[in-house]
Specification:
Strand content: 15-25%
Bound molecules: zinc ion
Largest sheet: 5 strands, mixed
Distance between the termini: 66 Å
Order of helices and strands: EEEEEHHHEEEHHEHEHHHHHHHHHH
């Protein structure tokens, strides 16, 4: 008989490996684990040793695979009378929770795979586990690490909304520590009440330390920030404004297309992305085509020029100059006279304070945009469609921030 032993792979206290059966087809092994009678059982509830064994019971528990073999443990464990708790309890096992059907090390492996970015479905499939089990494991691991809101010394925030499902009015609010890139908090909804919950739980001294908050031109957020952090400067970030203006461009471009005929119509056909992309990102033939359109259509030429001018407003360091540029922008828009353009100019003028605040707090739009894109990727992998709490934990995990600020 060989001196090789499997017991090194089960290095657990208070139990002993008593036998193993290996099946060839499909490859599987059943390892029998029994209490080591030299030790007194420990109560699962209170952790105290128990003197009286009530009965012995058995459970099948999945373990990590061994080589190409699926590993199943047949675990015998004791029910005890605990003097300390004053009742019948099960004994504490080091390697598994007897209410679960898998070992701690298998659960840790599943959580690690989820952490690496695999979807719950992929991990469940890979380990031959129930997706519900995998999700519960991952969620519990995340909750332990990210469940509590860490405020730290927040100074600048960026707050944004994210749509959970495309085309549905199902939103979450994301609060980012702008200085480190860490997602601090996520909550359901995108109204003032959502943000009120966040600020309401925030310690007053942290609230008082908030200097600036970057947001979209969105009244609900403005209202909440003004109420809770009256000293914080509200900054409207370029990303959202450009996004909103791109929609205006697209609507007007569509109108122009519908009203055009002949050659003009065919030139405008399918030109949406020529307007949305930045000039530098267009291929040479696309630049030539866009130029043709701009020469041909005065209104679209004005719109394109305004789009460029919009970016310039955010490049100023002095509020005086930025203010002049806003005036210039609005004046050109009003001259054109298209109602959608005039309405956008009115909005820009109304929210001018938050654009001018950008001079003092130049919060770069690329960071907010980067976070937005990262969250979209997490959404695509398939987390959180039914469980916004789990989704929020996944986002916090993916965006833990850098330790040092800049
Ligand atoms: Zn007890």
């Amino acid at each position: 008989m060989s001196g090789l032993s499997v017991r090194h792979y089960f290095p657990w206290c208070r139990v002993k490996v008593t036998s193993q059966n290996v099946n060839a087809q499909p490859r599987s092994a059943l390892v029998r684990i029994e209490p080591d009678e030299r030790y007194r059982p420990i109560c699962h509830e209170c952790g105290q040793p128990a003197r009286t064994v009530h009965s012995t019971t058995r459970r099948f528990i999945r373990d990590l695979n061994f080589a190409d073999t699926t590993m199943m443990l047949q675990v015998e464990y004791r029910k005890i009378w605990c003097d300390h708790c004053g009742g019948v309890r099960v004994e504490q096992l080091e390697f598994a929770d007897t209410s679960q059907r898998l070992t701690h090390r298998l659960a840790a492996y599943a959580a690690e795979l989820c952490r690496k970015g695999l979807s719950v479905a992929a991990v469940a499939d890979h380990l031959d586990l129930d997706p519900k089990t995998v999700k519960a494991i991952d969620k519990a691991a995340l909750q332990a690490e990210f469940g509590e809101t860490r405020y730290g010394d927040l100074r600048r925030l960026a707050i944004d909304e994210i749509a959970l499902k495309k085309g549905q009015k199902d939103y979450m609010t994301v609060v980012l520590d702008y200085d480190t890139g860490r997602v601090v908090w996520m909550g359901e909804g995108h109204g003032a009440a959502t943000l009120d919950r966040f600020f309401g739980e925030m310690p007053p001294e942290v609230r008082a330390g908030i200097e600036a908050v970057a947001i979209d031109m969105w009244e609900a957020y403005i209202k909440s920030i003004k109420q809770w952090c009256p000293n914080a400067k509200i900054v409207f970030d370029l990303f959202h404004v450009v996004h909103a203006f791109n929609e205006v461009i697209d609507q007007i471009r569509n109108e122009e297309y519908r009203n055009a005929d002949g050659d003009a119509r065919s030139t405008l056909k399918g030109s949406k992305y020529l307007f949305l992309k930045n000039w530098g990102n267009l291929a040479e033939d696309q630049q030539i085509r866009l130029n043709e359109i701009l020469v041909m259509n005065e209104r679209l030429n004005t719109l394109y020029w305004l789009k460029d001018l919009l970016r310039h407003i955010w490049s100023y360091h002095r509020p005086g100059w930025a203010g002049k540029m806003i005036d210039e922008w609005c004046s050109v828009a009003r001259q054109d006279g298209h109602p959608k353009l005039v309405r956008f100019a009115r909005r820009l003028d109304y929210f001018r304070y938050g654009i001018l605040n950008h001079c003092q707090y130049p919060m770069h739009t690329s960071r907010i945009e980067g976070v937005n894109n990262k969250i979209k990727v997490i959404k695509r992998v398939g987390y959180g469609y039914h469980d916004s709490e789990y989704f929020a934990l996944k986002v916090k995990q993916a965006l833990p921030g850098r330790p040092e600020s800049n």
